[in-house]
Design brief:
Shape: globular
Distance between the termini: 29 Å
CATH superfamily: Alpha/Beta hydrolase fold, catalytic domain
Largest sheet: 6 strands, parallel
Number of strands: 6
Number of helices: 6
Strand order of the largest sheet: 2-1-3-4-5-6
CATH class: Alpha Beta
Low-confidence stretches: 178-186
Helix content: 25-40%
CATH topology: Rossmann fold
Radius of gyration: 15 Å
Number of domains: 1
Strand content: 15-25%
Structural class: alpha/beta
């Protein structure tokens, strides 16, 4: 099986986060480390992601929060051809975040074009970092599958997500799907 690249968001998915647990549980999982998790710069984060993709062609990306926005910015770049699929969990609204904190300005505006690889957005109805309606609208623009996880907060340890085996099931589907079977929104 090809690699699973774990792509945390702002602050790097702290200890106890389901992404960190995934790394312990899956021998094929690797984290895309950033030099500075507290001061995200899109060009620097893209460089790290693209370098990891060149080392791991055919990888499935498992992103959380600002990591989802990083992945959406990857689409259309040459390294995107190395992506087998992407699981985008609790995307963060970088546009709103940038208005409150200039550290997020390089991630805005949010891409609004169809992604160049199969993907699934998983969103919560009470996520403080992106409204459910905006996540659903972006999913349609991106051409992704969409999963409504109900009232699950930011899908992180604070909302009870320490171990999330359902995420691994979703990612396995992206690893195994044939191009004509890829999940797309209608």
């Amino acid at each position: 099986m090809s690699a699973t690249l774990i792509i945390p968001g702002f602050k790097g998915s702290e200890a106890g986060h389901w992404q960190r647990q995934w790394l312990e549980d899956d021998d094929n999982a690797q984290i895309v480390e950033q030099d500075d998790w507290h001061y995200p710069v899109l060009s620097e984060w893209l460089y790290k992601l693209e370098a990891k993709l060149v080392e791991n062609p055919g990888a499935v990306l498992v992103a959380h929060s600002l990591g989802c926005i990083l992945v959406s910015h990857l689409s259309g770049r040459p390294a995107a051809s190395h992506v087998a699929g992407a699981l985008l969990v609790a995307p963060a609204d970088a546009e709103t975040m940038a208005k409150k904190d200039a550290r997020f300005a390089s991630f805005a505006p949010l891409p609004r074009e169809q992604l160049s690889f199969p993907s699934i957005v998983v969103a919560s109805r009470n996520d403080e970092y992106m409204s459910f309606n905006k996540a659903q609208a972006l999913s349609k623009l991106w051409g992704t599958g969409f999963i409504d996880l109900g009232f699950s907060g930011h899908i992180n340890p604070a909302s009870g997500f320490h171990h999330w085996p359902e995420g691994a099931i979703l990612a396995a589907g992206l690893h195994n799907a044939q191009p004509e079977q890829q999940l797309r929104a209608g």
